[in-house]
Amino acid sequence: MSSVLQSFQAGFPVFLIWTGTAGALFILAATIYVLLTPWKELALVRGGNATAGLALAGAFIGLAIPLASCLASSVSLLDLILWGVVALILQLLAYRLTDLLLRDLPKRIQDDEAGAAIVLISTKLASAMLLAAGLWDPALQRF
């Protein structure tokens, strides 16, 4: 039992640092996402706009998936930060591309049109899964 406690004692601070770093990257990216979108998601959600809530939830999940892949496959904290930033930038670009395809996306979200949110969510999740797979390093064989 003492080896288990020693392992926990040695590993827990590393866990906190790595997970805290990933959490900070997520918060930074989520903040940038909220600032980039022309509609005010939180205000719309507070006002009862379910479409804005769906779009925001999809964005958050889409940001977390590739970051989780980075967390699982990084070999150092710097590796996590570098690839995490790359993944999060690419996810933010995925939003912009969707916005270009659906030129009236902000208005459609504000008007509570679920179809626009569904397209945005599917784009975010699809790009997140592709990024997560691309970030996986087969040499690490962690998955």
UniProtKB/TrEMBL annotation:
Species whose genome carries this gene: Henriciella mobilis
Parts of the chain that traverse the membrane: 12-36, 48-68, 80-102, 114-136
GO CC annotations, alphabetized: plasma membrane
Name of the protein in its database record: DUF350 domain-containing protein
Highest taxon above the source species: Bacteria
Annotated family: Belongs to the UPF0719 family.
Entry's localization field: Cell membrane
Keywords: Cell membrane, Membrane, Transmembrane, Transmembrane helix
Membrane topology: Multi-pass membrane protein
Record Pfam families: DUF350 (PF03994)
Lineage: Bacteria, Pseudomonadati, Pseudomonadota, Alphaproteobacteria, Hyphomonadales
